[in-house]
# Entry
Amino acid sequence: DGGITQSPKYLFRKEGQNVTLSCEQNLNHDAMYWYRQDPGQGLRLIYYSQIVNDFQKGDIAEGYSVSREKKESFPLTVTSAQKNPTAFYLCASSRRGPALRGEQFFGPGTRLTVL
Amino acid sequence: QQPVQSPQAVILREGEDAVINCSSSKALYSVHWYRQKHGEAPVFLMILLKGGEQKGHEKISASFNEKKQQSSLYLTASQLSYSGTYFCGTEPLTSGGSNYKLTFGKGTLLTVNP
# Structure
């Protein structure tokens, strides 16, 4: 079955440590996204990538970094520079192209808690 | 620019109707609607691209006004399974639809009780 996987589901880290969240998709989608979700805030875009080896900052990129070396993978690193990293992180992917505009498929999410 | 959703929360009894609004101060290229159940990933409902467009998905439908600044999601004869948080995601018209980046509203929490 095609889909998006995120691991782990729950992650605990000590303050000051970098942590990398995994996102893999086998949908053959070109575009991938990382969102952060906090209670009452909706989904806020951290980074997005439209194609391999290219990515753009979203609305809240400070303290985060990404890479897109493979079409299937878009890992997110939460660095120690992120002031308030505890949140629910969602990865998504979508097809790309003017005639193919459609839905974003979301992974199950990773809940990160920084102690 | 984050779209404004209203109401923030609504409580219904099974069988009642609800309307959720999504407004922008500027014209939009598209509006996407998603539903997220507690602890789960958001799931796509529908996308609207054209001013004046209306779309349906079972008993859930949506409209996009002519000025392309407001979309409404209509839930009729609500069922228990409709409970969740509804988000609209928007693309500004100025993007020309070229960057596939959505800005989501803060969500509307819908609770359907028996």
